[in-house]
């Protein structure tokens, strides 16, 4: 007879071991996979934007820029997620509000700085916003698996 507790039922739904039993190495692997997946999706977005007419000299659409910023963004988001997870009385509820707000704030440079950069086009700026959205979606999926909240 199996008794489903929140930890075991969440793990079954996520397709893995309960989070309490997940090793630091497994969590690190999930976060690394999250960074790789987000960077890969951002590469596709950049290539589509360039193929659609975005200027190749627009620095944010170069791999050096978007991979570096994806890594930094995911790691900063991970730190925030971990703090909320550890300190908030109801972390899941707080994250449901905080994640969309932080995502909206992340558009500020896209709307203020990026349009004034060399090679900027409307398509390039839209691509940057899409990169923020997809990175957030992929990061939240990875964090929910590596560091689930209650």
Automatic annotation (TrEMBL):
Lineage of producing organism: Bacteria, Bacillati, Actinomycetota, Actinomycetes, Kineosporiales
UniProt-listed InterPro entries: DUF6069
Pfam families in the record: DUF6069
Transmembrane segments: 30-53, 65-83, 95-112, 124-143
Keywords: Membrane, Transmembrane, Transmembrane helix
Record's protein name: Uncharacterized protein
């Amino acid at each position: 007879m199996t008794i489903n507790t929140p930890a075991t039922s969440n793990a079954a739904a996520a397709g893995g071991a309960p989070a309490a039993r997940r090793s630091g190495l497994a969590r690190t692997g999930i976060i690394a996979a999250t960074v790789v997946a987000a960077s890969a999706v951002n590469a596709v977005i950049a290539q589509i934007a360039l193929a659609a007419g975005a200027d190749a000299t627009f620095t944010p659409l170069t791999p050096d820029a978007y991979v570096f910023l994806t890594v930094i963004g995911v790691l900063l988001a991970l730190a925030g997620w971990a703090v909320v997870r550890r300190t908030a009385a109801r972390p899941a509820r707080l994250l449901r509000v905080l994640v969309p707000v932080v995502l909206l704030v992340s558009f500020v440079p896209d709307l203020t700085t990026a349009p004034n950069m060399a090679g900027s086009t409307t398509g390039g700026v839209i691509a940057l916003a899409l990169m923020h959205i997809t990175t957030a979606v992929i990061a939240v999926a990875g964090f929910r698996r590596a560091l689930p909240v209650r």
